[in-house]
Amino acid sequence: MENSEKKEATVVLCKCTKQHAFGIRVEKRNNDWFRTWAFKLDEKRIKREGYDKVSIKGSMANDPEYPGCPYCGGRGFFQCDCGRINCFKENEDKEKWEVVCNWCGKRLSVVRANSFEMRGGGV
Ligand SMILES: [Zn+2]
Ligand SMILES: [Zn+2]
After folding, report:
1. pLDDT of residue 116
2. Distance from Cα 9 to the centre of ligand 2, integer Å
3. pLDDT level of residue 112 (50, 70, 90 thresholds)
4. How many CB atoms lie within 10 A of CB 110?
5. Taking the mean position of all CA atoms in its chain, how far away is CA 74?
6. What's the whole-model pTM score?
7. Among 75, 71, 79, which Cα is nearest to 61's?
8. Is 114 a residue whose pLDDT tops 90?
9. Where are the domains of the chain?
10. Distance 75 CA to ligand 1 centre (A)
11. Closest residue by Cα to residue 32 from 50, 6, 7, 68
């Protein structure tokens, strides 16, 4: 599995609940971001590694190997108006969900989407 091309990859922050943040490793292939891995993070490590400063733009899809959220196993996400992303477990066959952002507490409704623009910020 050797690949001489340098891959562009980074880690974006996501929250499953208010207290439970995790990192999603994303890799750029052509112009799309693919989620390849997810791992638990604590606040100290987030600050140390600067994960809260990362911002990426574009569409994001799951790599077939993506294991899902390390807390609940959810493979989806939603983005709030505050620019952060939240873990999202699709468990019903709906087009729209009522959710609460784990970062700022805002209530919002989510529609199916895979494109977003994310900004970094405090935890
Ligand atoms: Zn989760
Ligand atoms: Zn928010």
Report:
1. 64
2. 24
3. low
4. 19
5. 11
6. 0.81
7. 75
8. no
9. 8-117
10. 8
11. 7
